[in-house]
Amino acid sequence: MAMEFLRRTALTFAAALVFANVPQLAAASEQQPAVHQLRIYEIFDNNKQAFHERFRDHAMRIMAKYDFKIVAQWETRHEGRTEFVYLLQWPDRATLTDRWAKFMADQEWAAIKKRTAAQHGQLVGNIEDRVLTVQDYSPTQVFQ
Q: Which residues cross the membrane (predicted)?
């Protein structure tokens, strides 16, 4: 039940961000609905600064190379653990799958992960991944 609350809270924040960009998104309403992806990473209090530095300074830069569109990011506490939550937007599922494969195969990213793990230990525990498909009755449908 607490996990459902976290997911709903993240989606509420994401919707608020979408509403803030109404003029830019109005033209997109005539296209196919975007696909959103919710990622939840368990991170560890003893090295979360190293996690945030790696994500901010390296992962985001490399993700941008593969056309990742990060909509928003949060940190939360849930069931006694610290989590990093972020929302991505993709034009379709095929692009999502293709770009994740390219990112995960990126040699620079592999080297950075290896180096930071050697310096700081494991930075990420459990990872949850959700592909979100907007419903035709969703208030955010017009913004997709």
A: none
Angle at 18 between CA 140 and CA 94, to 5 degrees: 75
Question: CATH no. for residue 72?
Answer: 3.30.70.100
The two three-digit tokens of residue 75, written as one number: 């940190």
| 32 vs 62: which has the higher pLDDT | 62
Q: What is the CA radius of gyration of the chain?
A: 16
Provide the domain count of the chain.
1
Q: Residue 127 belongs to what domain range? A: 2-18+33-134
Phi, psi of 107 (to 5 degrees): -65, -35
Angle between helices 93-105 and 107-120 (to 10 degrees): 60
Q: Supply the pTM of this predicted model.
A: 0.75
